[in-house]
């Protein structure tokens, strides 16, 4: 409310607000995971390597030729970003920049961290990933869930959709990305 009143006061402000909204609406934060196993101290080589590493992910994320995926390593730090298949390089870049800026604040001093947005994923680790396959949880039958459904029924539907998408992805006309989407209706149990 306050912000929108603020934004109607002058044309220049409106333009600034438009700009702000255009960038702010690009990346929607979803979740993060700090492993908390090993920590680095500030003003160490690890910290400066991590900063260099994150900057190179951010700058590379604006390159359309990468198709929204880039993995790199600097010394012991290995990591990558992965953007959703239907977002362009501009949106990918905005998301990776937000992820890189947030991850060191959300997981301070951590040598292995994960962050998820609607549009991208950014992960890094010192040497090896211990939790390479983790994904943020989807609440089911929990408070806050919008659909009250049976877990087994849901998992069966999910499995059906994923299996049907596997074949479609192989034949996808989206070039290198092999990006497909599928949807199924979930009814209340
Ligand atoms: C890591 O530490 C943070 C802050 O203390 C905590 O919120 C988070 O749950 C911890 N993560 C794990 C995986 O234990
Ligand atoms: C990163 O991993 C290497 C190799 O396992 C280890 O020697 C180094 O101490 C680790 N760095 C940090 C900051 O934990
Ligand atoms: C973690 O990093 C902050 C600054 O980024 C520093 O002040 C703090 O001493 C570090 N903590 C440890 C345990 O190294
Ligand atoms: C991409 O990252 C690499 C490091 O892995 C770096 O050398 C290169 O300059 C980056 N490219 C761009 C366009 O930022
Ligand atoms: C990228 O996608 C966003 C959101 O759909 C759109 O606003 C923007 O114009 C697109 N940019 C380019 C260069 O296509
Ligand atoms: C950073 O993370 C917090 C969650 O702790 C989230 O609310 C916020 O939107 C994120 N900011 C950016 C710029 O991604």
From TrEMBL:
Keyword Disulfide bond among record annotations = no
User: Which N-terminal residues, if any, form the signal peptide?
Assistant: 1-27
* UniProt key word DNA damage: no
Name the source's superkingdom: Eukaryota
Task: Write out the coiled-coil annotation as residue ranges.
Answer: none
In terms of Pfam families, this protein maps to: Stress-antifung (PF01657)
User: In what residue span(s) does the Gnk2-homologous domain sit?
Assistant: 28-129
Q: Which UniProt keywords apply?
A: Repeat, Signal
**PANTHER family annotated for this entry?**
CYSTEINE-RICH RECEPTOR-LIKE PROTEIN KINASE 9-RELATED, CYSTEINE-RICH REPEAT SECRETORY PROTEIN
Under what name is this protein listed?
A: Gnk2-homologous domain-containing protein
Source taxonomy: Eukaryota, Viridiplantae, Streptophyta, Embryophyta, Tracheophyta
